[in-house]
Automatic annotation (TrEMBL):
<protein>
    <recommendedName>
        <fullName>Histidine--tRNA ligase</fullName>
        <ecNumber>6.1.1.21</ecNumber>
    </recommendedName>
</protein>
<feature type="binding site">
    <location>
        <position position="259"/>
    </location>
    <ligand>
        <name>L-histidine</name>
    </ligand>
</feature>
<dbReference type="InterPro" id="IPR033656">
    <property type="entry name" value="HisRS_anticodon"/>
</dbReference>
<feature type="binding site">
    <location>
        <begin position="81"/>
        <end position="83"/>
    </location>
    <ligand>
        <name>L-histidine</name>
    </ligand>
</feature>
<comment type="similarity">
    <text>Belongs to the class-II aminoacyl-tRNA synthetase family.</text>
</comment>
<dbReference type="GO" id="GO:0140096">
    <property type="term" value="F:catalytic activity, acting on a protein"/>
</dbReference>
<dbReference type="GO" id="GO:0006427">
    <property type="term" value="P:histidyl-tRNA aminoacylation"/>
</dbReference>
<dbReference type="InterPro" id="IPR036621">
    <property type="entry name" value="Anticodon-bd_dom_sf"/>
</dbReference>
<keyword id="KW-0648">Protein biosynthesis</keyword>
<keyword id="KW-0067">ATP-binding</keyword>
<dbReference type="InterPro" id="IPR045864">
    <property type="entry name" value="aa-tRNA-synth_II/BPL/LPL"/>
</dbReference>
<dbReference type="GO" id="GO:0016740">
    <property type="term" value="F:transferase activity"/>
</dbReference>
<keyword id="KW-0436">Ligase</keyword>
<keyword id="KW-0547">Nucleotide-binding</keyword>
<feature type="domain" description="Aminoacyl-transfer RNA synthetases class-II family profile">
    <location>
        <begin position="23"/>
        <end position="327"/>
    </location>
</feature>
<keyword id="KW-0030">Aminoacyl-tRNA synthetase</keyword>
<dbReference type="Pfam" id="PF03129">
    <property type="entry name" value="HGTP_anticodon"/>
</dbReference>
Amino acid sequence: MKYQRPKGTTDIIPGESAKWQYIEQTARQLFQKYRYSEIRTPIFENFEVFSRTSGETSDIVTKEMYDFFDKGDRHITLRPEGTAGVVRAYVENKLYGPEIQRPFKTFYMGPMFRYERPQSGRQRQFHQIGVEAFGVDNPTLDVEVMAMAVNLLRQCGLQDLKLVINTLGDAESRAAYHAALMQYLEPLENELSDDSKERLHKNPLRILDSKDKEDQKIVDAAPSILDYLTPEAAEHFSTVKKLLQALDIPFEIETNMVRGLDYYNHTIFEIMSNSKAFGGHWTTVCAGGRYNGLVEQLGGPEVPGIGFGLGVERLLLVLEAEEIELPIADDLDIYVVGIGEATNEETLKLVQALRHAGYSAERDYLGRKPKGQFKAANRMSAHLTLTIGEEELRDGKANLKNMQTGNEVSVALRDIYTGFDKVYQNIVESEEE
């Protein structure tokens, strides 16, 4: 039998994983500057955590969730997105308490799961980096979250980006728009796709998100939610636009954008790339929005929230297509060359001592000749080699060589063990002279 990874998954092998680590580290450093702390939630949750929050008519719930009954007959779901699980943890751990500073800012990283047709940038197990901020219903925070998302993508090397925004308004705005949309769509019901017919009387806003070409023609002439905003919702959106302009962040307004989850309200946004990775079409790399009311849905108090999620696989595809090289350093500090069987123990002690001193170090494990060991050092881009033979072992010395300059010095083994930093500095200074 030939064993293969499950369809819609991928192996992230050494070399590739370094790119992931760079993106994750870049995100961690940026989030720390904005005062976001990491949260880690389970990969699986109770089914209701997502069915209640994502919406019964969303594609995630109706078509894509990996759900099953476990041995205790509990209905379990592999998480299809990050926000609902974070909100559940926020409520369960009472992170809204009076002693908690507001806004409560957190971020997450990890795998998500959706059963859909695998394609470029879209796998059944995929990875998200996301942030969530709770406790502030201020449009300034909306803009800060969007600015942070743009900042993260630019730090990863992307430049040709487009920020698209919309508002879904407050509850009163949505109710008025719902009525107007129904009035427009009901006479056209027979022309809608089967999915949209099913959604029409359950959640007509979901039709705006349809990928069916005939549906999209109908949607193009649909009423705009911007015409049904309450004064308060209109003021919120107006402030968002004004603050984005103040930060010199270009944006476009797309009134048919609703996002794929039912919990959004007020500001929603997508950051797109027209990379050739997606055929030169504008494709979403990062998206998010405000979700006031979601905490209440999962049993918590009335606490507003906002966040975004970024698809790591999609980001990597864009970086590759744009030929953006991530600054990943994988050079080796020191390769220890041992000549003769008698040096085996000493070379082991040396690499351990060098690692303890804070340097990356490697040695030969295959019994290769000195020439083969030096070739290995070159393949690993070793900055220095430390060579010890049986004669050097008897004399308590080793030869330290700079592989770039060829400069070589003899050093006492005791100096390596007691203070290699000084030895390293001496060879650097001798090169400068």
